[in-house]
Amino acid sequence: MEDFEPRIVAFLCNWCAYTGADLAGTSRLQYPPNVRAIRVMCSGGVDPIYVIKALLEGADGVLIGGCHPGDCHYQSGNLKARRRVAILRAILEELALDPDRVWLRWISASEGKLFADTITEMVQVLKDKGPNPAREAWAI
Amino acid sequence: MSMQAIVGVEDGDVLVALREFLRQLLDKKIVDALMVPLELPSGDAIAQTLIKDPEKLQRANPLAPVMMVNSANLVSNLTRRGSREKVGVVLKSCEMRAVTELVKLLQASLDNLVTIGIDCLGTYEVPQYALLSKELEDGAGPSAEQLQAAKEGQVIPRDGYEFRAACQICEYPIPMNVDINIALIGVDTATVILLEMEPETGKEVLEKLELQEGEAPAREEAVAKLVAARERQRDEAFTQFHETVNGIPSLVAQFATCITCHNCSTACPICYCKECIFETDTFRHTSDRYLTWARRKGATRMPSDTMLYQLTRMNHMVSSCVGCGMCESACPSDLPLALIFRAVGQKVQDLFDYLPGRSLEEELPVATFKEDEFPEYK
């Protein structure tokens, strides 16, 4: 689908990933505009329900951005997020839904370029995958 | 289990022997109260009943092949804030496993509790059990033929009837971590019942009830045979599941008849949240929201959030799912929940090498984390 523009919902932790995304902006780094950022205080505060809701509403990809392990502002929130994402992806896989639409990446406050590159990468991967089949599913 | 004792069975009447054993537990003050499945006066239903009067035990029927509710919820009711009296509870394997999980979730306590497991010879759905109780001359309980089969490591339903889907694929028919287990599989129940006991409780029971130690040499092999058969059935069921569910359309089709009544959550022993998000204002949507969804996708199913509810419930509890199948039994739409949640539960539990109910020492996967794990996340 040539004109398919993936829609990514990104849950970004306040202290690292969101700040990193902000740095990408202030540095005027170019990256695809396909992402809607949602600032959370910590990646550990992302309940799987938010991710599932985004996917069922038709988001083509969901990115969770957190601090690198060891650097979490709240000590271990990102480690909890890691388990939650592992569980969510296992469930998606078991139900033959594409687990690779849910990404967990560690992006620090100084890694503006990494954020831009992550979005660029994700948009490309999602373009290759095509739109989320849940987009049309109304009987859910 | 380090101690084994024998309870004699007369005239092949296992039920009478069990009633007598349970009565002794009350009479000899091993427990102050006993929760045990009782036959209700209507004759076609069973209810776990908390008993103080030993006379009531005349209706006790721990052999009844039905699980009206998962008793873990009841144990939680009795012990959530501790119990001041010593209570004995008769539990099936999946019920005890769920109790262990609830203890880890701080929803139940093992203090002042004497857990009495009983080997599970399969359960029927509640309406089936009611039917069987009325149709069969000797009632719905295990027949002499079924007990003989159990002795040889086979658990079979009555002719023409089937056990619940969850039971057919259950690889854990023997209760784990109970203080006393009433062993039936691999045991010659025409003459004896075997009791497997933890040393502390065992010592007290042996002494006060004046029982003889004993053993059932055929037990280990019989149990292994049954477990192997169940594992085969489980694997077949999982394979079929993977073939049936292969993307959004087939997944939605599986849940097509779901009416989002939340009965599965009510029946589930693991779903303990007093304020489940789905019962809060978060899901009392304004009409504008419904209309927006309808506009966006062209149409929106009502009531809303069916798949969201199912997938979220899965994410929240499946790491502790004991496969009791109460969800499926409680479902008014006959969704194949037992298989779905077991298949997904297996996958998630394997991620952490975790078996719900295996040990109090093993932390809940969702309540802990390691510094170094899942290196694939960068």
Set down the secondary structure blueprint.
The complex is a heterodimer of chains A (140) and B (378).
Chain A: E1 8-13, H1 17-26, E2 35-40, H2 48-57, E3 61-66, H3 77-94, E4 102-106, H4 112-129
Parallel strand pairs in A: 1-2, 1-3, 3-4
Helix pairs in contact in A: 1-4
Chain B: E1 3-8, H1 14-27, E2 33-39, E3 46-51, H2 71-79, E4 87-91, H3 93-104, E5 113-118, H4 126-135, H5 144-151, H6 165-168, E6 180-183, E7 192-197, H7 199-209, E8 212-213, H8 219-244, H9 248-254, H10 263-267, H11 287-297, H12 306-317, H13 326-330, H14 337-351
Parallel strand pairs in B: 2-4, 4-5, 5-6
Antiparallel strand pairs in B: 1-7, 1-8, 2-3, 6-7
Outline of the structure:
Chain A has helices at residues 17-26, 48-57, 77-94, 112-129, and strands at residues 8-13, 35-40, 61-66, 102-106. With 140 residues, chain A is an alpha/beta fold. In chain B, helix 2 crosses helix 3.
